[in-house]
User: What shape does this take?
Amino acid sequence: AWLWHQWLIVGESPLRFVFYALAASVLIAIFFIDLQHYIIPDELNVALLILGLLHAGLLKGAATDWDWASLGVLNLRNAALGALIGAGLFSLIAILGRIGFRKDAMGHGDIKLVRGMGALLLAPGMLVAFAISIATGAILGGLWTLLRNRKATPTPDEHETEEEPIPPEPIGSLLLSCALYTLWVDALITLLPRRVQQRVYASLGQPEEELADESFEETPTMLPFGPFLAVGALLTMLFSGALAGWVRAYFEWVGF
Assistant: This one.
């Protein structure tokens, strides 16, 4: 309803309303799927990326709340740069976390999701959405994990049959995956028939998404970051005017 009011009544931009409504539908689906199954389907991430690129290409030069920044001007170049910055930033977090903590620090689906967010929201909006997701994740995620941890009281039999934790992803595989995501190679592979996808990933030594999901083991304190990224993107779409104004006022205040 807010998108309808914002882009069909106040803004009078039917095409932008269509893109944002479709993107909101994708983000809502990602929120519930990742929250329930701890996985983000590649098709949804690719759909968000395509929507972002089409939005920038068909509405090139249209006013945005972020166009006071050079990367906030709506065009295909900035959409591609936003996707590149998003994928690169989260790839860096995943790699540094894997090296520093010796465990998986970022899900592959999250990297692809932020790439699509960068294409749709452009780099300034994507970074603000990322900040919102951190804040909401810290507050709501902490409360959710605390409640789940209290409810999950393992029995003595569960302690006896507890299996060893799954080892983290090898560094080489992670580096290759991040390179594929940053260069959008995985998005192109997703558009291929399923059998062809399996052959391509097998030749690259990458695991199938379903196989990775089967080996995934949920713990009471585990909470995916994808839903909070989706919330951050949705809030940035809905309230971009206020958020952009606050960010711009802050930069002017610090003299940037």
